[in-house]
């Protein structure tokens, strides 16, 4: 599992996230779990190494539907 750590907490954990996309590579994170600062995903490390931000789209249960947060680290 690959771990992506954010510089600040997301508004919600993975259960409320519809889509998280690593930028600038524009890769959708799969098998997302955890939160709100540290998430795991099933993406290969090589595909998201160098991510600078993540774009988060929350599901319909969350009033604030979108958020962009800087990435602190990506590691296996």
Provide the descriptors you would attach to this structure in a database record.
76 residues; 7 strands; 1 helix; mainly beta
Summarize it.
The chain is mostly beta strands. The protein contains one helix and seven strands.
Structure description:
The chain has one domain (2-75). The longest helix is centred in the middle third of the chain and has 4 residues, at 45-48. Helix content is 5%, strand content 47%. It has one helix and seven strands. The mean pLDDT is 96. The termini are close together. β6 (53-58) and β7 (66-75) form a beta hairpin. It is mainly beta. A seven-stranded antiparallel β-sheet has the order 3-2-6-7-1-5-4.
How are the SSEs ordered, and which strands pair?
Layout: E1 2-6, E2 17-23, E3 27-28, E4 33-34, E5 38-41, H1 45-48, E6 53-58, E7 66-75
Antiparallel strand pairs: 1-5, 1-7, 2-3, 2-6, 4-5, 6-7
What's the order of the H and E elements? EEEEEHEE
The chain-level mean pLDDT equals 96
Give me the secondary-structure category.
mainly beta
The rounded distance between the terminal residues' Cα atoms is: 6 Å
Strand order of the largest sheet: 3-2-6-7-1-5-4
Beta-strand percent range: over 45%
Query: How many DSSP E strands?
Result: 7
Helix % is under 10%
Radius of gyration: 11 Å
Biggest β-sheet description: 7 strands, antiparallel
How many helices? The count is 1
